[in-house]
Amino acid sequence: MKKSHYLLLACGLLSSCKSDDITDISSDRISSIERISTVGYGVPPLIERHAFVYDERGLLKKVDERVFYYGVNDKAEYSRVFLTSFQPNGNSVYVERLSYRWDAQGRLIDINLDSLYKKTPAIPGGISTDGPESLIRNIVLASYKYNGTDRKPSAIFYRPITHSGSNIIIIGDEEKVEYTYEGGNVSSSVRTGKINSSGHPVRMTTVNTYLPNKHHFAEIYNKLGFHPYNFAEVVPQNCVNTSERKVDGFNSDGFTPPKGGDINFVDISGDVISFPFVFTGKATYSYHFNDMGLPIEITEGGDGVTQRTVITYK
What we know:
Layout: E1 30-38, E2 46-54, E3 60-63, E4 66-70, E5 76-87, E6 90-102, E7 108-119, E8 133-145, E9 155-158, E10 161-164, E11 168-171, E12 175-182, E13 185-194, E14 201-214, H1 218-224, E15 238-248, E16 281-289, E17 295-302, E18 305-313
Antiparallel strand pairs: 1-2, 1-18, 2-3, 3-4, 4-5, 5-6, 6-7, 7-8, 8-9, 9-12, 10-11, 12-13, 13-14, 14-15, 15-16, 16-17, 17-18
């Protein structure tokens, strides 16, 4: 049976500010994030790392291997990933370009996959002497809907990209997240998608409470206009204090939830779960701060899942 593990993103915490405005203090700029999730006994921890680079204006220039290029009004026009590595039989190449479209109010309308090119060296004696090569063009990965003049989206429609090793790239079916707000914070969200490739529907509702301190991604989100690497996620203005999640849709034929309602690991006729890794029930957060009041460590726990997030700053 195949098993699918998904990493739940944690929320960070910035120090209380004297003003509601996000400032350009360089020490507020995130340099790196590492998340380590422990999801069960005997299961290796899941590790996610991201590195951030800024230009001289304080705009986000690079996240990991993705480089952002800006146009009018300092809005991201496109981004590019270029990876190459030496193999015994030649170089492997991966090139990805995304473009970003904005409305007259400076709000993101959609993210388009302009092109995704991949080439892997051929194996001597194999069927192809040129090596596996593929090109994908012009796919809308995410679109954003707004209520009135609101700055943050009321709904995001998106298609997740899954990379399996270096050879398999899967663009999933469209999923949807609807958001409800209190001020600049997401009070609740409803995510609908499919539990596996057979099309079993699932619906996840999340209700959050917040602390008065700013979220560690608030500055990046306000300037960039979207989450730096998770296009389906809205960054709240403040740090999450608690999250309570409920998942519906487990009555479909052929699906039985694990004991306790946890959906961290599920096998359904060999299919891989496409819905995000998450636990049900209530999650709580605790924080450690540096002498400036910025978070350097966040711990999230609930339903047998523990995640530790370490943040460093410029």
